[in-house]
Each structure stands twice: as C-alpha cells, then as structure tokens.
Amino acid sequence: MATDTRGRMIRGAARMVGTRGASATSLRELAREAGVPLGSTYHHFPGGKHELVTEAVLAQGMYVDELIDRARTEGAGAALAAMTGEWRRVLERSGFRTGCAVLAVATEDEPDLRATANRVFDSWRARLTGVLVEHGVAADRAPGLARTVVAAVEGAVALCRAERSLAPLQEVTVEIGRLIDSAIDHRRGRRSG
Amino acid sequence: MATDTRGRMIRGAARMVGTRGASATSLRELAREAGVPLGSTYHHFPGGKHELVTEAVLAQGMYVDELIDRARTEGAGAALAAMTGEWRRVLERSGFRTGCAVLAVATEDEPDLRATANRVFDSWRARLTGVLVEHGVAADRAPGLARTVVAAVEGAVALCRAERSLAPLQEVTVEIGRLIDSAIDHRRGRRSG
DNA sequence: GTCTATACGAAGATAGAC
DNA sequence: GTCTATCTTCGTATAGAC
Q1: 3-class secondary structure for chain A?
Q2: Is the CB atom of residue B20 positioned under 7 angstroms from any atom of strand C?
Q3: Predicted local distance difference test score (pLDDT) of residue B186
Q4: Set of chain A residues whose Cβ sits within 8 Å of the Cβ of B151
Q5: Which of the 24-43 residues on chain B come under 7 Å of nucleic strand C at their beta carbon?
Q6: What is the rounded CA–CA span in Å between residue A14 and residue A7?
Q7: How much is the pTM?
Q8: Looking at residue B100, what DSSP letter applies?
Q9: Which chain A residues are Cβ-neighbours of B168 within 8 angstroms?
Q10: Distance between CA atoms of residues B13 and B15, nearest Å
Q11: CA of B63 vs C1' of D3, distance in Å?
Q12: What is the SS3 assignment for B46?
C-alpha cells in the first residue's frame, strides 16, 4: 500500500538521519532500505529528499511529544524518564550508532530543516514546561528549566554516541532529576514557609 | 609559509564543520576559503579530508581546554561561564549559523571522528571534574556533574542555532549554575553539620 | 502508479606538468 | 613544493517505458 510505503520510508529516514545526519544520508539508500525504487520516492515525496527528511524530523518530534504527554500525570521526573528511556532504547538497539534526527538537522545548515527542528524542540519544551508547572515549579522558572532539560538530554545522547556508553544519559538523568526536584522543593518551601 | 597555511586551513575547517557538519563540508570549499589550490591540500594534509577534520576537532578541543584551565582558580561557575561565553561569541559572530565542530562529528557516523570527538569531550569533562572537586563538590559526584555540564552546554548551543537566539544558552547557564551551587552547598552542609 | 535508465553536477583523490 | 587537469564514484532529480 502506498501509505505504508510512505510510513516505512519516514521511519527509515528518521533512523538514518539520526545515525549519519541529513546531508550524509542519500535518497538512494533510503529508497533501497525501504525496498522502493529511487524513482518512486518522488511519487511518494514530490519534494524529494527535503520533504522526506522534514517528515522524518516531525515524526520523531510527535513521537516524543506523545511520550511526554503519557507521563504527564505521573510527575516531572516521569516525563524526564520517558525521554531518557526512549533514547536509551534507541542507543542500545543501534549499538550507539543512532541518535536524534532533530539534533542532527539542527547542527547542519539548511534553513528550512533548522526551522523544523526548532518547532520540534519548542514543542517538547512547551510540553515539559506544562508538566513542570503542574507539579509545582514556579511559572517564571519552568520555561528555562524545560529548555535546560531538552538541551541536556540532547547533549547526553550525543555524548553517549561519542563514548559508546549509556553513562552520560544516566548521569544527566540523575543530575537533571535533582535540579527538577530542587525547583519543586524550592517552591514548596516558599509556600510552607 | 606552509605552517601558516596549515593553521589557516585548520581554523577554517573548525568553523565550517561547526556550521555544516563534516560530511557536508567539501575539501574544495575548505581549500578555496584558505586560498589554497585543491591539490595542495594533500601536501599539507596527506590524509586528506579525514586528517584535516580531525585536526580541526582537536584544535577546538584544545582551545576550550585552555579556557577551562584559565578559569580554574576563579571557581566552578567561572569555568561554566568560560565555556558558555565562548559559544555565545561563536553564535553571535556567525548569526547563529556556527556551532561546535566536536558535536557535529559526534552526531555523524565516522568511527575515527567519533573517537576523536570522544577524546575531546572527555578532556573537557576531566578538567571540569577537577575544577568541581577543587571547589567543594564531592569526588564521587563530580564526574557525573561534569558530564552533565558538557552535555547541557553542547545541547544548548544546538538549541540556540535551531531557534536563532541566545536564550537556551543563557537559561542553561543559569540552571546548571544553580545545580553546581547546590552540589557545593550540599557538601559544605555535610562538613559543617 | 511503478520502476528503469539516465542527465548533470559535485564529491574525494591523484597524476604529472612546472 | 605548487597547482592544473582529470579519474572515478556518487549525489539529486527527472524522463519516459510499461
């Protein structure tokens, strides 16, 4: 089915872009991996590679959005764990070769893809901000703290790939968890005292 | 002079790799920017593009190493500020187009370059660990906290590029600064109580 | 709609003239 | 030692047969 082919290509592109970056990923390889002839990719994605990579970045964004939403009621720590747990799975399954496709396009120099990455990061940040506020972080601190969470997690995934170890992600989870806890405690302290 | 040409090419490569990533940066462009004919680059760098990019990543690593060393006695916050201040300058001067060449090669899939990025990250982490311990962070916590600093700063630079704003770096500086302070306070609290 | 064949440009690398 | 010209491979994209 055409729709299935499209989805397969998008998922494959998210993985390959997260592994090699967008510019180092060829449409030929993407097509071959999905079992689609090169020429047919332009039927499914008239905009070519640009359109496919954009869809892949947005798909990765929406997937993490959903993970955050599902952990929302459990607490701020659960939202953090949802993100780090997902990246842990991706890293382990790929032997530390695959990371985040959003970070990959954010570190290249393609204006449209950069803007797409920005929308995804901002979506994560907005969701995390909501979770933090719901669980007691001051409204004026939550956006900055949420952005710090996104930055630290993305950086940790890159460090895990560099050293082929989960240690950075685990340590960042612990330290950023402490930071979130202290932001909540600080507010509670204010309320009660 | 040959040595000067080599240095010019390395500095140019660090900037271009930090802007576009290693795979999207061509040796032709690197040569043209340094005013060197393509064929001559193989005289200065017999290992070709691979050697030039490796040198560029190591140069960026050593430069930040020195920034950390110089801020060492001033305190842990000064070491953090030295890193974030440098990235702020790079981002501003390039109109948010240029980031960290080390992160760029860490997010691609070239085993040798990945290993080089790992050595650089680990050098930063080791130096930061020393600074943290010197200023009162517990020895068993400092390495993980130092890695969190590296991850958060690298992630923040990527976020700044994505949203074309210094806000992520500024907010990360504030929040990670708080985390470092609390790690120091916690130790002092233990000592005195 | 699906796929083969190909156009056209740019990449890394090298040979060899000067 | 420096640089021009070129080899080979691979990239995106498309034309057009089925």
Answers
A1: CHHHHHHHHHHHHHHHHHHHCCCCCCHHHHHHHHCCCHHHHHHHCCCHHHHHHHHHHHHHHHHHHHHHHHHHHHCHHHHHHHHHHHHHHHHHHCCCCCCCHHHHHHCCCCHHHHHHHHHHHHHHHHHHHHHHHHCCCCCCCHHHHHHHHHHHHHHHHHHHHHHCCCHHHHHHHHHHHHHHHHHHHHHHHHHHC
A2: no
A3: 83
A4: 151-153, 155-156, 158-159, 168, 172
A5: 25-29, 38-39, 42
A6: 11
A7: 0.97
A8: -
A9: 147, 151
A10: 5
A11: 33
A12: coil
Write out pLDDT tens, residues A82-140.
Answer: 999 999 999 999 999 999 999 999 999 999 999 999 999 999 999 999 999 999 999 99
Residue type, B155: G
Half-sphere CA count of A105, side-chain side, radius 13 A? 33
Query: Helix A48-71 crosses helix A111-134 at what angle (to 10 degrees)?
Result: 0
Any idea which residue has 């509670």 for tokens? A188
User: Residue A54 and residue A105: Cα distance in Å, rounded?
Assistant: 9
